[in-house]
Amino acid sequence: MLERLNQAMGHIEDRLDQVLDVAAVARVAATSEYHLRRMFSALAGMPLSEYVRRRRLTVAGAEVLAGREPLLDIAVRYGYGSGEAFARAFRAMHGVGPGEARRTGAALVSQPRLSFRLTVEGNSSMRYRVVDRPAFTVVGPRARVPLVHAGPNQAIIDFVRGIDPGTLKRLEELSDQEPRGVVAVCDDLDPSRAEGTGLDYYHGVITSALPSAPGPRGTTALPVPAGTWAVFTTSGPAPRAIQELWRDVFGEWFPSNPYRGRPGPEILRVRPSPDGASAEAELWLPVEREAG
Questions:
Q1: What's the pLDDT band for 276 if we cut at 50, 70, 90?
Q2: Degrees, nearest 5: CA angle 268-136-245
Q3: What is the DSSP string of 184-233?
Q4: Which H or E run contains 177?
Q5: How far apart (Å, rounded) are the C-alpha atoms in residues 51 and 65?
Q6: Residue 217: predicted pLDDT
Q7: What is the DSSP letter of 95?
């Protein structure tokens, strides 16, 4: 997978002066658009669209400093419809406008071309299983919250604190599917996975009892069709063990296994120790086998 991803990076590099065709890039990577965006965001720490924007402005910056072409020609080549739009984007990245940069030879910011490699630590084995599941329903209180890449998500923390304990108790009685008990479910994420974009967060349970029967008041039902899931488990210091699990799934497991992510909710079950210092976690991700 990483070799194909690096080929896709070369494809992008050769076409920085063209409209980004994510479908074509995904074909070079021999995967789906959904999985390409998810893998890139997890490995690079930024959305694919943001990387391409920064690479374009890096190359454009070199052409601005070279002084051989009018600024408007450079702006149009890299996808900006006007000199004003180019100047705003240029300043946002480089901290200086293109005209001033050309006049003064100012130092500019550079986004290096990315390449990916797999680093094998060899000090732990990832525990996982792949299961086919019939359709089920997620039911629980739901909130639209911003995506946070690192650190606590205060919007989720505040939302969970505001849930009536009686509602959670009634929900636990509906839990009849793995993973059992109250879980955290993220759905309808923006394809870019950019920091601050929205997602639907459910604090609820997995059940087969809905949607034929109504859930507790104040809850929302999310029907999930049948499909294949990769289930990862870990235990250790909290929250480090859970953060490292996400890192290892996308940095090691996906590149080494014939599966790719598919659209669907992401489910996390966490059981902290009595003192909160450690936790056991189970992460469910919707997957499908890579073609061929």
A1: confident
A2: 20
A3: EEEES--TT--TT-EEEEEEEEEESSTTTS--STT-EEEEE-SEEEEEEE
A4: none
A5: 21
A6: 86
A7: S
